[in-house]
Design goal:
205 residues; alpha+beta; Lipocalin; 8-stranded antiparallel beta barrel; two-stranded antiparallel ribbon
Length: 205
């Protein structure tokens, strides 16, 4: 009986040890931390039936941390973390348009726009030469969240600052929002918007 119990315990130990080692082999290094600096910015570009407009958040007013990690399984690259941008910080270079946009985005009820990062299609090379990659994000506006594929341009300069430029076409209607109108509906904003952001990032050692 003692022999059988010892053999059973040995088999359990080996199976558990093998499982742990197999699980550890899937992942390479621990996640790298990326600190998003306060000189990052975002712009929203659109048009009305008479002209074009650009609304910007000229400077990020906080510091957030992203985590990037590579895995051997299916070449997955995880990019996790989020940034939040204050709706009141938008500047459309026209006070009337700025107020209309803030009202449309329900600034009083939902004071921030959030971008939550999920993954990249490959681990970036981080060279001086800009590289084109894609990634999955969740954008939350006015309490509504939608998942999008983002086109990125990424490079690292001589000061080791990582520049991550993202762009995506979205619609007001994606977030159950009605585009702004002015002058009793004579000036109508089109549904489609181009969202672009430039994040300046430092890797945390």
């Amino acid at each position: 009986m003692l022999y059988k119990n010892s053999l059973w315990l040995l088999l359990v130990y080996l199976s558990l040890t093998g499982f742990v080692l197999q699980g550890q082999s899937v992942y390479e290094a621990p996640p790298t931390k990326w600190a998003v600096s306060q000189n990052s910015n975002l712009s929203v570009n659109g048009s009305t039936n008479i002209n074009k407009f650009s609304c910007v958040v000229p400077a990020y007013d906080r510091t957030d941390t992203l985590f990037i990690s590579n895995s051997k399984k299916n070449n997955e690259v995880s990019l996790s973390g989020s940034i939040g941008l204050s709706i009141s910080s938008f500047n459309c270079h026209n006070s009337g348009m700025t107020k209309q946009l803030q009202k449309t985005l329900k600034e009083k009820q939902f004071p921030a726009l959030h971008i939550r990062f999920l993954s990249l299609n490959k681990f970036p090379d981080l060279n001086a030469q800009p590289e084109m990659i894609t990634g999955l994000v969740v954008i939350e506006i006015a309490g509504v969240s939608k998942r999008f594929v983002i086109n990125y341009q990424i490079n690292r300069d001589d000061q080791k600052t990582i520049h991550l430029l993202g762009s995506r076409m979205i619609n007001f209607s994606d977030f159950n929002l009605v585009p702004p109108q002015k002058l009793g509906g004579m000036i109508k904003t089109k549904d489609e918007l181009s969202v672009e952001f430039h994040m300046n990032i430092k890797a945390i050692e």
